[in-house]
Amino acid sequence: MMLTAQDWLAKIHMLPLKRRVRIMNVCGGHERSITMAGIRNALPKTVELIAGPGCPVCICPEEDVYQAIQLALHADVILVAFGDMLRVPVNMSKREVRSLEQAKANGADIRPVASPREAVKIAQENPLRSVVFFAAGFETTTAPVAAMLLEGVPDNLFVLLSGRRTWPAVAMLLDSDTPAFDGLIAPGHVSTVMGPEEWLFVVEKHSIPAAVSGFMPVSLLAAMYSVLRQLLEGKPFLDNCYPELVRPGGNPSAKAQIAQALNDADANWRGIGVIPASGFVLSPRFGSHDARIRFPDFDLAGRKRAGQMPHGCECASVVLGKINPNQCKIYGRSCTPKSPIGPCMVSDEGACRIWWAGGVRNNATVSTEDAQTFVVE
Ligand code: SF4
Q: Which of 40, 55, 80, 245 is deepest in the core (most CB within 10 A)?
């Protein structure tokens, strides 16, 4: 008999949890489901759910967003990007253009796209113009970019790639002195492409329980139960609570396409720094389509606060699960979805935006009392 979300919740409440347990997810889709379904508040008080590095827009380097803005403004190109990137602010004074959205308002030809296919179509329809595809994303977004390159793209299409692997960020967290969690909900989509085995290191190297989860509350609660039970029994293993889509080995053809079109590289994560082998770059075979080779680097030497987070923004701590979104001092004050300061309030996968959309309006830094109570409107 298939268990329902209520069944899993009841099973979790029956577990003899004696100490606080922190479970991290590393997927914006997971965080959205957890928040919207009210799972955080439905769990025993001893279980803390932490949103980890699950938002590619949030960690996209400020320098890459700046480069995309400058290309759109000064290189006479059509710049295409996933819609989430358009409102991400960079560190420029308020008098200057600070986002792709503002660049568009200033006359730059910037077009949102939902897929690489749309970028190819725009290049085909505009053969006399250069089209730059600013592609920021994790493995699930990067794999279609690799497929696009291998299928063959128009000569006038160039890729400004800001692709990242998810697992190295988790490895970095676990290798730090203060690992931020006791159990991991591994991302379903990433595992569908790359295979669940990518998360074995969590169990084998760190003896931390892990379970791959889908996006419905029933799958998330099953994964949470698995992780908690593994902890109680002291027998960590990598569970797959999303067997409908996640298969051993992942998607071999997508992985082969990534291997053929892209190379691994050390990569910068906004506000966090360089994480070894966490990024993708175009292989030399596709150098003629690499926007980083084709166009000059517009970043000015000495540009103030280049690469840094905006003043007061604690997105890096939010992304690493070190604080909850509403523990940022400016959450809900100067930073709201209407006027976002940091990228986590811009993207649909950003924890701050998700918490705001889920009705969390209190800023936990206001008082100790508030910090212990999440107000859901
Ligand atoms: S509230 Fe705004 S500034 Fe603070 S961490 Fe979130 S996005 Fe960044």
A: 55
> Which residue lies with its CA nearest to atom 3 of ligand 1?
313
Residue among 272, 319, 330, 334 whose CB has most ligand 1 atoms within 8 A, to mutate: 330
- Answer whether 219's CB lies under 8 Å from 188's CB: yes
Strand positions, DSSP E, the chain: 21-25, 47-51, 77-82, 110-113, 130-137, 157-164, 183-187, 210-213, 238-240, 262-269, 273-282
Residues 224, 338: one domain?
no
* ipTM of the complex, rounded to two decimals: 0.99
Instruction: Report which secondary-structure segment, H or E, holds 7.
Output: helix 5-14
Q: Is residue 178 part of a domain?
A: yes
The DSSP bridge partners found for residue 184 are 24, 210
Atom of ligand 1 nearest to the CA of 325: 6
Identify the residues whose C-beta falls under 6 Å from ligand 1.
313-315, 318, 325, 328, 330-331, 335, 341-342, 344-345, 352
Model confidence pLDDT, tens digit, residues 84-112 = 999 998 988 888 999 999 999 999 999 99
CATH number at residue 271: 3.40.50.11740
Residue of 99, 313, 322, 347 to mutate, ligand 1, most atoms within 8 A of C-beta? 313
Overall domain count for the chain: 3
Domain-embedded: residue 206: yes
Q: What is the pLDDT of residues 48-60, one digit of tens each?
A: 999 999 999 999 9
Q: Is the pLDDT of residue 169 over 80?
A: yes
Calpha distance 52→27 (Å, rounded): 7
Q: Which amino acid is at 348?
A: D
CA of 374 to the centre of ligand 1 (A): 17
Atom in ligand 1 nearest the alpha carbon of residue 318? 5
Q: Are residues 196 and 279 in the same domain?
A: no
CA of 25 to the centre of ligand 1 (A): 19
